[in-house]
Amino acid sequence: MIGPVVDVGSVPEWLKPLMLVSEDLDARAFTRFSAPRGARTRPAAVLVLFGEGERGPDVLLTRRADTLGSHPGQVAFPGGGADDGDDGPIGTALREAEEETGVDPSGVRPLAVLPELYVPVSGFAVTPVLAHWETPSPVHAVDPGETAAVARVTIADLVDPANRYQVQRHGHGWKGPVFEVGGLFVWGFTAGLLSVLLALGGWEREWDHSDVRDLDVALAAHTNRERA
């Protein structure tokens, strides 16, 4: 099932615009990639968990451990590959979020299942699950061998034009958004999904799309700033 799984009227006002468009979305709203015909993909799900703290609405993000064999050090939504015992994408997203961040699933209300998105670099077919953190619980990096950090990042900081630009990798023909916020360097799949959701939710502010930097240079500069 794709689209809302609860009544839109029961959702907080600041989340309603995003909920109202979730039913009509398809994968093309988020990515230009699709799985090649006959390709074997691996089902996965991520939890896009919106809460509300002292500084307003926020979203839960993790930073993967630097020692991991795939996507080391990258910022991501809690999530991962589906297990046989999961109850669909919602079950996968909630299980993975609890395993990675310690979030209490009983305080999380799934709102909508978004279209499945193909990630070429990993072969995953990822289903984002939009959710509201009705009763926030303490979160932390449960297994430091997999997760280096867990953070609630405010929407206000994400949409601040000073925290946004684009990156590219020469010779790859790829360009995508970046968020530098709260000590995190958010790019790739996560930044692309976030960027679309912020726009669909009506939160986006005008920012400089013409500011395009080399990914490796930008990431090195960010790392040096964080170490200083």
Question: Could you walk me through the main structural features you see in this protein, from its secondary elements to its overall organization?
Answer:
The chain is built from 5 helices and 13 strands. The chain is α+β, with helices and mostly antiparallel strands and 228 residues long. The chain has a single domain (3-227), classed as Nucleoside Triphosphate Pyrophosphohydrolase, CATH 3.90.79. Strands 1, 2, 3, 4, 5, 6, 7, 8 and 9 form a 9-stranded mixed beta sheet that branches. The chain has a 4-stranded mixed beta sheet with strand order 12-11-10-13. Strand 7 (117-119) and strand 8 (124-133) form a beta hairpin. The longest helix has 14 residues, at 88-101. The radius of gyration is 17 Å and the shape is globular. The chain starts with a strand and ends with a helix. The model has no long low-confidence stretch (mean pLDDT 90). Residues 70-92 are annotated as: Disordered. It comes from Amycolatopsis minnesotensis. Its cofactor is Mg(2+); Mn(2+).
Concise structural overview:
The chain crosses the membrane at residues 184-203. With 228 residues, this protein is of the alpha+beta class.
